[in-house]
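re: ur question from the group chat, yeah i did fold both. here u go
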Amino acid sequence: MIKDKQLEVAEIVSGESYENCTFLQTPEKVKVSEVNFVGCTFEQTDLSEGEWLDCTFERMNFANYHFEKSIFYRDHFNTCNLLGTDFSNNGWKDSSFTDCRVDYANFSESKLTKCAAKNSSFKETYFRYVEFKSGFITKGCDFDSTSFIGSKLKKADLSKSEFEVLEVVPEDLEGLIINQFQASALIGVLGVVVK
């Protein structure tokens, strides 16, 4: 475990853990694998086109950071602030969010394969034109006013999470898993009037 250091991104060592470290700006695209980050800071807010494999991010603040066109495989975000973070055009696989704030984030035009979220807030987040492969399992999350426009929701499971309103279109709802109480929030999208 490396603690309380100021480091170049190029100095990140695969298989290492970093706690309360600060990583300086770099002109290079970030490529990191098998690293645990705890309470660390990246001075550079534009981390687009990066590659993050088998990493854990704990108590990290990536609010309003840019990760466009990045790859996240087998990564885990725990107790992170991802408010307004731009994850658009990303490739995600076997990754998870736990106890995170992901409100107003943007996942548009990304591919999510076997991803999950638990006890996290995704209020007003954009999942527009997202390809959900092998489902998207959620539990204890808040998806109120989240936009899924253009995303086929087959096997996406929101039944153990909550929302008052979702931004969706009828043709994308086939196969979406919800509970009986959530059905009333979506019935208007289908043009049904309840008296």
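okk and heres the other one u asked abt
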Amino acid sequence: MKLTVMQHADAEGLGVIQNWVDKHSIETVTYRPDQGDPIAQLNPADIDGLIVLGGPMSVNDDLAWLAAERILIRSLNKLNRPVLGICWGAQQITKAFGANVYPMEKPEEGIGTVRTSDGTLLNVFHWHGEAMSRLPGSQVLYENDQALQGFKYHDRIVGLQFHLEVTPTMITAMGTAAGKPQGPVNEAILAPGHKVLNGILEQLFG
């Protein structure tokens, strides 16, 4: 399998996902549509799986490449190919299938908590000022008192509003890039989320 990756910010790369793909000898090819990579020319039939990472823009912005990325997501859905969206990437999936993405009254930034449908709590890193409406036909995976936080759609598509892929170094870099310095984060806080992420990667791309 070869995974196609859409990256939209220097500080928001694959993070610990890179460890998982290396372990499984999976090849990745990364595109930067925000920097002009011509993703509209990609053939969905040639894509085994897609990861859509985060970014500082809004999915509601009027940029041609945003629409091209959403077309790709919908095309992969028709082909039953797996897609993982992280933070802004989850919002792109939501927007691609016609549900609303809207500004929050107060952004969620820093370490916070989400819960599963059975009430299990998970510490995660939040970095978003917009939220997702529920996509009709989707299964809610995570939520908190502020917003929907994660979903599964058509079995092969998962969207996570939060960042499980981050390392302490990535969190520092993301804060610096946004002009919002973040305090030190202990790796132990992130470790359970890394384990959950590995499970999701196995389900989608394993």
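fwiw on the second one: The mean pLDDT is 96. The radius of gyration is 16 Å. idk if thats what u expected
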